[in-house]
Amino acid sequence: MSWETITPPTPIDTFDSNLQRLRDSFETGKLDSVDYRLEQLRTLWFKFYDNLDNIYEAVTKDLHRPRFETELTEVLFVRDEFSTVIKNLRKWVKEEKVENPGGPFQFANPRIRPVPLGVVLVITPWNYPVMLNISPVIAAIAAGCPIVLKMSELSPHTSAVLGRIFKEALDPGIIQVVYGGVPETTALLTQHWDKIMYTGNGAVGRIIAQAAVKNLTPLALELGGKSPVFITSNCKSVMTAARRIVWGKFVNAGQICVAPDYILVAPEKEAELVACIKEVLQERYGSKRDAHHPDLSHIISKPHWKRIHNMIAQTKGDIQVGGLENADEDQKFIQPTIVSNVPDDDILMQDEIFGPIIPIIKPRTLGQQVDYVTRNHDTPLAMYIFSDDPKEVDWLQTRIRAGSVNINEVIEQVGLASLPLSGVGASGTGAYHGKFSFDVFTHKQAVMGQPTWPFFEYLMYYRYPPYSEYKM
Ligand code: NAD
User: Fold this and answer.
1) What is the pLDDT of the chain when averaged over all its residues?
2) Which GO terms describe its molecular function (predicted)?
């Protein structure tokens, strides 16, 4: 069934009136009330919770993803995000006093007031369609901003369920869901927003940034990139590294923004690593890894399937496990694939893989590996370091500017509401999750004041012209 049948595109000629409705609602000031924001968030949480079965079913239809995986990687995070925001919102909306240097400022009471930015546009992708849509909605409501949400057309079953949940749970004055593809997103981008948050690939990120420039609209760009994994000579348990990498790479068929994209392994550990990965794959998925496997997700669309298929067909590396055997275009399935001895100019080393393939690049020293990353794939969204030498870990962190770093573990940094999810450079700008979600749609207004007593005015007289009087 086509996405247009499941989520018919929202007519573009309704966009102006919908935006005006949200602006009018913002101007009533109802979102200024923290009680109102909390009531909306609680209602949304209960509606979300009541619909969990529908959500699991929809994600399985979109991605053939096992229910448990959706619970583990999306629903538990969303639950924590709701509880963190609901628990702390009264604290976050308070004015924050800042240091007073005294002197002429001694009565100024300088402080920062968090104020909502206004009506925001959020554009999301398909790979984690539950958390990537619910989290920005939580963020916007928490910050007091009405939101227009454009979900990805590539995960229509999940979009349809979430669209219904938002409609049933929330005041129509604070959210408008837009269904559609490129024409609808392009039309949305011609309107004037108080902030745009885009999650997706860097090529479209550049289109969004160009549209935002016209109105000087502030942007949060949550993009991707090639996230490296280092397994150094100081990694004590290559088997532990293999277990974690196999999990973090092959959940959701590798369609994860922070997925380990490629491995840089110490030359003396490479053979052990390949052997461990093979063993772990066998232990977890058995030897029949095909489209009917209940624990392996599928690729989201045929164009993405063809892109990944093409990479495997064209790689110059050695396919150690997986490959094109059992690849199924109708089912959009590719089995977990490990490729070793991958040269720098290989097709696997050009762009983010975003699929179930992990290349191990040709062996070299740690210094050469760092040079390779900084020269070719600078500022990745994430970096993973398997090493039991804290000095080495620290050195790698100072050499490579990554959005996040996880030591002896993969992808879990995204699940911690107290840590920001954020890229750097080409992997994005602007953070969210937990308190950062509140901040992303909040302006930090600088506030101070001065007394109007005649004596204070007398003290401040020195600053007024004519300056010549003070020059003697
Ligand atoms: P996608 O194709 O669903 O695109 C994302 C959104 O952009 C969709 O709503 C889509 O309708 C819209 N869009 C697509 N083409 C457009 C165009 N030409 N003009 C205007 N809008 C357009 O998703 P995707 O980009 O394939 O998502 C995968 C990418 O997202 C990967 O690079 C991944 O790393 C990144 N990602 C990043 C994060 C993060 O938090 N940093 C999270 C998830 C995914």
Assistant:
1) 96
2) aldehyde dehydrogenase (NAD+) activity
**CA pair distance 274, 146, nearest whole angstrom:** 50
Q: Where are the alpha helices (DSSP H) in 33-181?
A: 34-50, 52-63, 67-70, 76-92, 131-143, 156-169
pLDDT of residue 472: 45
The answer to whether 172 and 161 have CB atoms below 8 angstroms apart is: no
Pocket test for ligand 1, best of 124, 127, 196 (most atoms within 8 A of CB): 127
**Quick one: what percent of the chain has pLDDT higher than 70?**
99
pTM of the predicted protein model? 0.96
Ligand 1 centroid to residue 285 C-alpha, Å: 29
Cis peptide leading into 363, omega within 30 of 0? no
Mean pLDDT of 258-278: 97
What band does 363 get if pLDDT is binned at 50, 70 and 90? confident
Which residue's CA is minimally distant from atom 41 of ligand 1?
A: 222
How much distance in Å is there from the Cα of 152 to the middle of ligand 1? 8
Alpha helix locations (H) across 354-468? 366-376, 390-399, 435-440, 454-459
User: With b meaning 16 or more CB within 10 Å and e meaning fewer, what string describes 81-118?
Assistant: bbebbbeebeebbeeeeeeeeeeeeeebeebeebebbb
The residues with which 98 forms a beta bridge, in sequence order, are: none
The sign one gets for the Cα dihedral 446, 451, 457, 460 is negative
Cβ contact 131:162 at 8 Å: no
pLDDT of 470 = 61
Q: Is residue 359 within 8 Å of 322, Cβ to Cβ?
A: no
Please identify, by atom number, the ligand 1 atom nearest to the C-alpha of residue 123: 9
- Mean pLDDT score, 320-349: 97
Q: Check: CB of residue 254 under 8 Å from CB of residue 409.
A: no
- Per the document, the length of the chain is 472
Over residues 445-470, mean pLDDT: 90
Name which residue sits closest to atom 28 of ligand 1, judged by CA. Answer: 200
